[in-house]
Write a structure and sequence with these properties.
Length: about 160
């Protein structure tokens, strides 16, 4: 396996989030070597997702309502709100400024279209390998296939099962 550079958009990266990728890893019985390499790939994906989500949160914060001045209102932790603190709703979520939601969505869309380059070891497999995995009970839904296929290098011919 050689290092490969995989370009994926922020949107595709979000589809590979820990819940989706983790479910594919834990709910399936992968061959040992494939499982190992998928785990390594998942580590790279999670690392990039942290950066991606941090930037997305910064965008949302930018367009969220904030206190304009210090207040007498007391937060749960006993401290008073200060100017610039985010205004949270009753569920603890940020309150969006209705006048800027369109611009926020455009900024998030722009972020989701960024091409992110992951340097990972693609997993080499043949269609025959994949058929054998399926015979052994490894069944993937179309959505699961869409998530993991960028990380596989499918070759023709016969190879030893991984």
């Amino acid at each position: 396996m050689a290092n490969s550079k995989i370009k994926i958009t922020g949107e595709k990266l979000e589809q590979c989030n820990n819940d989706n990728f983790g479910k594919i890893m834990s709910d399936k019985t992968w061959p040992v070597k494939v499982s190992y390499w998928l785990g390594r790939i998942m580590d790279h994906v999670i690392s990039e997702l942290k950066v991606y989500y941090k930037k997305r949160d910064e965008i949302i914060d930018k367009y969220s309502l904030k206190y304009e001045a210090d207040t007498e209102e007391v937060k749960e932790n006993g401290k008073k709100h200060k100017a610039g603190d985010l205004i949270l709703n009753e569920n603890g979520n940020r309150t969006l400024n209705p006048e800027t939601i369109k611009q926020m969505n455009e900024d998030i869309k722009e972020l989701s279209e960024i091409e992110i380059e992951l340097t990972v070891n693609k997993i080499e497999a043949t269609f025959e390998d994949m058929e054998k995995w399926q015979e052994k009970g490894l069944n993937l839904s179309p959505d699961e296939m869409r998530i993991i296929m960028p990380f596989f290098e499918i070759t023709e011919g016969h190879k030893k099962e991984k």
